[in-house]
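Example S7 (structure tokens).
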């Protein structure tokens, strides 16, 4: 949670060496980086070396293999990782402190030279799709449906109990609007399917009912509240 990650730009002091841990039996590549600050001396009018930081870098697993095969002594490198201090006691009983880095990424400083990158071959293989894999949906076996059954889909009414499934042509005919130019087409009334269509030339047709006259709304008497007039008070 409170790890300290830094980036160190410097030079490799020696070629990385392989080591194997005794407890976990893992291989790790170790090398040291020296990073020296440079400053301009106005009196001497030249650049001089400042303080130097030496840190031990540990690269694990695949990163360690590539570091050991790519970095040599004196190469300009850039290392990024977690920095920590380790206290230990030497053979003479003296307490020592060393600063180490668990590298997350290591590369060459291309501002000071050229390099060519060689990509590692992929370790994982892609799954091959076959007919059996294509026939499964979310891991469950499924079969391909070529003809969609009639009555399945949006816009079709659900059949009543005991009613036979409609054929495809009947469904299409029920969804199509009638042609007004067709003499055999039914006459539809905008008032609704249940309202009868009356012929004005028929003498037995009842006269259309006139809408009842709506009573005029009664006007409410508006009363104004009069406030008493206030007389000025003499000072």
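Recovered sequence:
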């Amino acid at each position: 949670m409170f790890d300290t990650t830094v980036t160190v730009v410097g030079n490799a002091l020696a070629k990385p060496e392989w080591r194997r841990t005794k407890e976990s039996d893992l291989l790790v590549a170790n090398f040291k980086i020296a990073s020296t600050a440079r400053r301009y001396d106005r009196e001497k009018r030249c650049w001089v070396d400042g303080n130097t930081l030496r840190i031990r870098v540990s690269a694990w697993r695949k990163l360690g293999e590539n570091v050991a095969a790519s970095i040599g002594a004196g190469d300009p490198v850039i290392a990024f990782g977690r920095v920590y201090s380790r206290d230990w006691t030497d053979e003479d009983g003296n307490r020592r402190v060393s600063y180490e880095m668990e590298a997350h990424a290591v590369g060459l400083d291309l501002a000071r030279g050229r390099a060519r990158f060689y990509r590692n071959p992929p370790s994982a293989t892609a799954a091959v799709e076959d007919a059996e894999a294509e026939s499964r949906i979310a891991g469950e076996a499924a079969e391909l449906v070529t003809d969609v059954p009639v009555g399945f889909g949006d816009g079709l009414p659900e059949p009543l109990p005991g009613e036979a499934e409609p054929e495809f042509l009947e469904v299409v005919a029920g969804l199509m609007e009638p042609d007004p130019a067709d003499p055999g087409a039914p006459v539809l009334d905008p008032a609704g399917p249940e309202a009868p269509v009356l012929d004005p030339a028929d003498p037995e047709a009842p006269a259309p009912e006139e809408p009842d006259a709506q009573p005029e709304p009664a006007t409410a008497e508006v009363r104004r509240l009069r406030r008493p007039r206030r007389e000025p008070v003499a000072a």
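Notes on this example. The mean pLDDT is 75.
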